[in-house]
Each structure stands twice: as C-alpha cells, then as structure tokens.
Amino acid sequence: MIKDRVVRILVGIVAAVIVFAAISEAQSIVAPVVFALFVIAIVWPLQKALQRYLPGVVAALATLLATLAVVGTIISLVVWGFARVGQWVFANASRFQALYGQAHDWLEGHGFVMASIITEHFDVRWLLLVFQDLSSRMQSLASFLIVTFVFVILGLLEVDIFKRQLAGLRTGTFGPFMLSAGADIGAKMQRYMLVRTLMSLATGLVVWGFTLASGMELATAWGVIAFSMNYIPFIGPFVATLLPTLFALVQFESWQSAAFVFVCLNVIQFLSGSYLEPRIAGKALAASPFMVLFAVFFWSFLWGVPGAFIGVPLLIAGLTLCAHHPASRPVADLFSGRAPQEETPAT
C-alpha cells in the first residue's frame, strides 16, 4: 500500500512537471487564452447590462472597446512613466557615474575588495539598457494583446451559449458544479480587480504627493509607476520603492535623504498592500501570503511579466474550484491563510 502510494505521488509530480513545462513552451497560445478568460470574467457584468438595450454583437463590441480603452490607458501610462525616468537617467548620467565612483572609494577604503571591483566596472549605460529593454518588452505586448482580445470578443459572444450548455447537461454533477464555481470565480475576479485598482490609485496618489512634497524630480512619473506596478503583488511595490530611492540618492546626494525616501515609500506600500487591501477585500479573497508569493514567482518564471500579473488571479481561481468540491475543500482551507474557526460550545 505504501509503495503504491509513493508511486502515485511520484507519477503525479512527474505529470505536473510535464504539464507546466508544456504550458511554458506553449505560452504564445495558452497565455492569451488564460488572460482572455480573466478579462471575460471581469467585464461580463458590463456586457450583461448592455445586452438589455443592445443586440448581443453590439454589446460585445462596446464592452471590448471599453476594455481596450482602459488597458491601453494603463499601458500608455506605464510606458510614459518609465520613458520619463529613462530620459532623466540619460540627462544625469554623469551624476550616476560620480555616485558609483564615490561608492567605489568608500568600499575600497573599508576593505570590500570584491564590491569595489564591481563598482569599478559599473557603467551607467547598464541602466539605460535596462530601461530600453523594459520599453521594448512593453511594446511587444501589442501582439499579445491583439491575440488576447480576439479570444475575448469570441468568448463574450459565447458566454450565454456555454452557460446553457452546462445547465443542459443531464448526467453527473459537472454542469451544476462548473456553473456554481464559475459564477463564484467571476465574482471574486471582479472584486479582486476592483480592490486592486482602488489600492493602486490610492498608492499612486500618495506616492505622487510624497515625492512632490519631498522635492523629488519626476514626482508624477513616480506616482504613475507606483500605480501601475501595484497590480503585480510583491514584485511591483518592490520596484516602485527601489527606483525612487536610487534616484533620490542621485538627486539629493545624501544617504540620509535616500533612506528617508525608502522608509516612507515602504510605509506607504505596507499600509496599502498589507493593511488596507486585505481589510477591503475581506475573507472572500483570502489566500496564504506564502501561496501568493509563490504564485507570483512561479508564474513569472513560466510567463515573465504577464505571469507575475496573472499569478494571483489563477491562485484565487484554483482555490475557489477546490472550495466548491467536497473532496478538495480541505486544500482550499489549508491555503486560505485563515485560522480554522473554533466551535462554540453548546449551552
């Protein structure tokens, strides 16, 4: 019995590795489909409302155009923010080089030989290459978005048909299970994006106000970057905190000022992501922080930046599916991040 169980576990692990390897290799096909399903789950209430007054095809096109406008605006803001930062780096390249020269002298004076070797070979063009690579990656999203929105428009036209087909299944419980789980997943995706958008807006405004009040240049760009990066848990806030800190060090030429900026930005990110957001989202979106971090890094490993964004929604969808089936409900409870409720003694 034990040997058979071990064999089944090993076979399951091997099968999972093969499946995820195939998903990684088929990213150009699978990722747009996954994102299309995610977008459909979010925008379906809008199309449902429009269908009361418009034909189905017109309602789907109107929903798609509204979605394209929102996504295009966010991407344009991201490109604009990083472009402004890249221009500032180019204009102040000598200041970056001087800063790293000072770091080289300090490290060498304190006996950090390996670190001084690294700083000695530092070239500010590395930063420029980073921003150029980031800009090219953002531009490459255009083809990805085109394929995704083709799936979105086709999916929006077939949601009602698919629901009727599931409801018409007369054998087994698959139809009712998928209808119930799908409705729950859709509601959670909508709530997740609503909360994430509100917190991103609040974070961007507060970061903009703080950087403006502290006298930092590019305050609007830092606010835009904080807003857009907040959609990616953990990684996004880290980038939105580290970049302004580095630039504050170059602008003010003071470690104390840079440390002050770093601490304040971390407080802002902590209050937004770890305090306010869980309370606004409520228990419906509860997930273990360990699993959230794992999902972000795991899917970013498979699909890059798109994977980092979609990792948490996929985790929420998986836990919701598990919660709707009695056999897998313990898995959802285990990774919910919530302590089990204590039973109240009978009186």
Concise account of the structure shown:
With 347 residues, the protein is an all-alpha fold.
What this model shows, in words?
- This protein has about 350 residues and is mainly alpha-helical.
- The chain has two domains: about 30-170, no CATH class; about 175-340.
- About 85% of the residues lie in helices and about 0% in strands.
- It contains 13 helices and no strands.
- Helix 2 crosses helix 7, helix 3 (about 55-90) packs across helix 8 and helix 4 (about 95-110) runs antiparallel to helix 5 (about 115-120).
- It is globular.
- The chain starts with a helix and ends in a 13-residue tail after the last helix.
- The model is unreliable at about 340-345 (pLDDT under 50).
Q: Name the helicity range.
A: over 70%
How many domains, as an integer? 2
Task: Give me the strand/helix succession.
Answer: HHHHHHHHHHHHH
Instruction: Please give the largest β-sheet.
Output: none
Structure annotation, total helices: 13
Number of strands: 0
Question: What is the averaged pLDDT score?
Answer: 80
What low-confidence regions span 5 or more consecutive residues with pLDDT below 50?
Answer: 342-347
How far do the termini sit from each other?
44 Å
Strand content: under 5%
Rg computed from alpha carbons, rounded to a whole number of angstroms? 24 Å
Query: Helix/strand-derived class?
Result: mainly alpha
What would the principal axes of the Cα set say about the shape? globular
